[in-house]
Amino acid sequence: MTEVLLYHHVQGLTDGVRAFADDLRQAGHTVHTPDLFEGRTFGSLEEGMGFVREAGFDTLRERGAAAAEDLGPELVYAGLSFGVTIAQKLAQTRPGARGALLMHSCIPVSEYGESWPDGVPVQIHGKEGDEFFDEDLPAARELVKSAPAAELFVYPGEQHLFTDASLEAFDAEASELLLERVRTFLASV
């Protein structure tokens, strides 16, 4: 099956992120979940962002890249919100990437190169009324227009981290649909 490197969101490696990874493992995939915050989790997006600012965006992104160096090159890079900043960069710049899963966020492709790499499929997932994803939606649409193996899935609602079962934002129905699409994607790469 597929080997996935999953980067957590700004609230840390929560029980909900672990459960998401476990769902993929149950489908037969190997899923690595590096803890960029060294055991810290946060009760709100604001607290998590405060920690990220204090620790330094670049420091945390370097930790994420270092986790990839310990693994082979043929990975699917997956990110949840803040984790997308690392997953997308590695998918665009690290040779051998098998795919990318960008959940709750999408960065303009130009941030990491001139174009999305040929032969690297990508799925982007977010909620239509999520104030954070709404900012990223133009970049997501542009990526999908520019890459033949790119898909964008927009779900109804406004919750940001709707895939994390340990948070109030959790949306079981949307999360299950996202997981179904992700499982199909992983089975095809």
From TrEMBL:
Domain of life (superkingdom): Bacteria
SUPFAM superfamilies: alpha/beta-Hydrolases (SSF53474)
InterPro entries (UniProt xref): AB_hydrolase_fold, Dienelactn_hydro, Dienelactone_hydrolase-like
Domain called Dienelactone hydrolase: residue spans: 4-187
Gene Ontology terms, MF aspect: hydrolase activity
Signal peptide boundaries: none
Keywords, ordered alphabetically: Hydrolase
Keyword Coiled coil annotated: no
Gene3D superfamilies linked: alpha/beta hydrolase (3.40.50.1820)
Name assigned to this protein: Dienelactone hydrolase
